[in-house]
Amino acid sequence: MPKWGMAADLDRCTGCGACVTACHAENNISTVGPEQAARGRAKHWLRIERYWEGDFPDVHLKFRPVMCQQCDAAPCEPVCPTYASHHTDDGLNAQVYNRCIGTRYCANACPYNARFFDFFNPSWDKPLHLQLNPDVSLREVGVMEKCTFCVQRIKATQIQAKAEERAVRDGEIQPACAQSCPAKALVFGDLSDPESEVSRLARSGRGSKLLEDVGTYPNVNYLNRQAQV
Amino acid sequence: MTHPTGDRINQDLLRPLLQTSWRFYLLVALFGGVVLLALGMWFRQMYLGFGVSGISWPVYWGFYVTSFVFWIGISHAGTLISAILRLVNAAWRRPVTRCAEVITAFALMIGAMFPIIHLGRPWLAFWLAPYPSERLIWPNFRSPLVWDFFAINTYLTGSVLFLFLPMIPDFAVVRDKSTGLRRKIYGALSFGWRGTTKQWHRLETAMQIMAIAIVPVAVSVHTIVSFDFSMAPVPMWQSTIFGPYFVAGAIFSGIAGLIIAMAVLRKFLHLEDYLHPVHFENLAKLMLVMGLLWGYFVFNERLVTYYGNGPGEMAVFWRTQRESFAPLYWTMVVCNFVLPLVILGIKRFRTITGAVIASFGVLIGMWLERFLIIVPSLGHKYLPYSYGVYRPQPTEIVIAAGTFAAMVLLYVLFAKFVPIISIWELKAGEHPSPELLPTALEEHPLGKLHL
């Protein structure tokens, strides 16, 4: 059984935001318009956090892509009264939209604020409504949604590999964010396979987890910066 | 101080039932209008989408959950106080118990609405109940929200029973004094009560069982409500003190609600001969004790956080202590601690007016307390990039205000249809009959105190 994980190299991330755009396009994340976005209703399953460090003129800029960390001990799961938020066998935090009644408790429990609520029925600024992904279901008003590690791509690749009677190759599955990253800062793969690229990066001395002290055991590894640019 | 007896009690306490003044219609129209407006706002929210409220990322709980915790807290006045006073057989409880128990039943009904109002898809709220489904899906018993569902339903069922049982003899009194349709309705409600020794004995036994059973239920309900917060890894939520802290706060605000309700009833239904200053003074003393307890818990919570010095916690700590939420925080401290301590701690001020002023302070303070537990923590959760603000919108302000109107409306209607002071208990106090009172409790040292 695979254990899906990701590595984000903070040295490589330039904060360009291509992953955010790719994520919106791949996962049918509706746009909410400038007014609602200003009120905090924008849904970015993946966001680039920008931090300034130090005082002028000695200022450093830091980017950190933050998505659902697919925690092993996810605080969002036990609090859901209807099992809409639950753990799959391959270690993903699944969100069943049809089972969600919208208590928003999972989002409160999430230390990363990686979960988003649908305040209205979905709509898209034209012509974005013409490019919806048929593999991803739309979410109606009143449910929670979040990064799935592009579970539709994981499943498609697994089915293809099974049809060809072979194992899934390392690097074959590419979530939209990793596929679109021009600097190859995001690496996706199977953490249960010690030879995979993502395992190798996670084991390296630079690997760290976000908010590790909260005790969520996340599956996204951040590779710390080695040089200040 | 006069002690009315016999027929006088019947006359005074049945007057609101048998005569209707224009003031009753005015009150019902006024508060009913506000309740309808709030209901309309809720349906509007369902129709247009949850976005019409002020909830936004990352503050996903706001006025609705504040109102939920506040009203569940208010519900702790009635049944708990009345059950404890019955168990220790405090004689002064007799005119107080029913007004208190009614608060519990109505506050629970109002509070229990909020977990449904705040849902993204309220039409699916029944998924919280474990019903046999062909898909074999049960609710998640690890979720504190499911614990809430069971705790509140248990408490509501128990409280309604506890309220209804001692009303049976009073319904029989109304039945005997009335004619026509009213006689039929109250006849059905009194379950054929004839006042035989056997019936009295059964009623007393049932009341004793309910009084003992309801105390642990009441304490557990608000502990479980506090688990909604303390089970989530959110700064300043994840605290082991939340259980007793919430229970103390709940009883504190509940007594405040009871004092205000009693003062209003005394004034408008002319019950000066039944609700004496000593009742208010005793409740005020109880409120003072709970106020001191609440003050200790808040101090303890802050002290432990300060010495723990976790970065996530300290961000929230300073936000409430001296940054954007500081005005609300210090208003809460004044309303909940300074005001009751000064007014109720000094004997000269411990009058009915003083107790009512302090109670209003406590209600405001306790509402703010729940708000200050929920919103600052969610708005400042760990990653500074994801800090956010909460601005309540008219939808949730009207709905929150509507709950207070709903409470008044239900109370007015109840006082119209049921004697608000238990007639038979008052009379039993006049002529204590050994059959009606269990001897073991009568000899209890607390019973002699006549608190």
Structure description:
The complex is a heterodimer of chains A (about 230) and B (about 450). Chain A has about 230 residues and is an alpha+beta fold. Chain A has 7 helices and 10 strands. Chain A starts with a strand and ends in a 6-residue tail after the last strand. Chain A is globular and about 45 Å long. Chain B has 18 helices and no strands. Chain B is globular and about 70 Å long.
Which properties best describe this structure?
heterodimer, A: 229 residues, four-stranded mixed beta sheet, globular, B: 451 residues, mainly alpha, disordered C terminus
The percentage helix of chain A is: 10-25%
Total helical elements of chain B: 18
Low-confidence stretches of chain A: none
Cα-atom radius of gyration of chain A: 18 Å
Can you write the helix and strand succession of chain A as a string?
EHHEEHEEHEEHHEHEE
Oligomerization state: heterodimer
- Count the helices of chain A. How many? 7
Structural class of chain B: mainly alpha
Unreliable spans of chain B are 432-451
What proportion strand of chain B? under 5%
Categorize the overall geometry of chain A. globular
What is the structural class of chain A?
alpha+beta
- Shape by Cα distribution of chain B: globular
- Number of strand elements of chain A: 10
Count the strands of chain B? 0
User: Can you summarize the main beta sheet of chain B?
Assistant: none
- On the 0-100 scale, what is the average pLDDT of chain B? 87
Distance between the termini of chain A: 40 Å
- The pLDDT mean of chain A sits at 92
Q: Biggest interface in this structure?
A: A-B, 47 and 45 residues
